[in-house]
Amino acid sequence: MGFGGSILLIVVGAIFTFALNDQTIGPLNLAVVGWILMLAGLAALILTLWFWNSRRRTTVVAPTAPPPVAGQVYTDQPRTVRTTEYEERR
Asked: Which residues, including other chains, have CB under 8 Å from residue 74's CB and lie 6 or more apart?
């Protein structure tokens, strides 16, 4: 259902419970229906939060370079040397 649907249920339930003057339509008591909608929205919101927090997380560990030795440079990528046409003609 997600966050939006949960909040919508809570809002509609609150309107049914607190904002209506005539709270009976036939055999239905809208105050009770409002409380049921608010509880269902709250339960859906808690479930949504639980599912979002329990998703699998991946951790990427970057390789560590050995400690530098005087005069040497360590990089993660192999070193490539580009030459231009001008340098090749010389």
From this structure: 65, 66, 68
Token digits for 74? 């360590």
Task: Note the pTM of the prediction, 2 decimals.
Answer: 0.58
Say if residue 4 is exposed, middle or buried (CB neighbours under 10 Å; 0-12, 13-18, 19+).
Answer: exposed
CA–CA dist 32, 23 (Å, integer): 9
> Of 15, 14, 45, 17, which Cα lies nearest the Cα of 31?
17
Residue carrying the six token digits 């949504």: 48
pLDDT in tens, 32-46: 999 999 999 999 999
Looking at 1-90, list the stretches that DSSP marks H as alpha helix, in order from N- to C-terminal side: 2-14, 30-53, 85-89
Tokens 């309107």 correspond to: 15
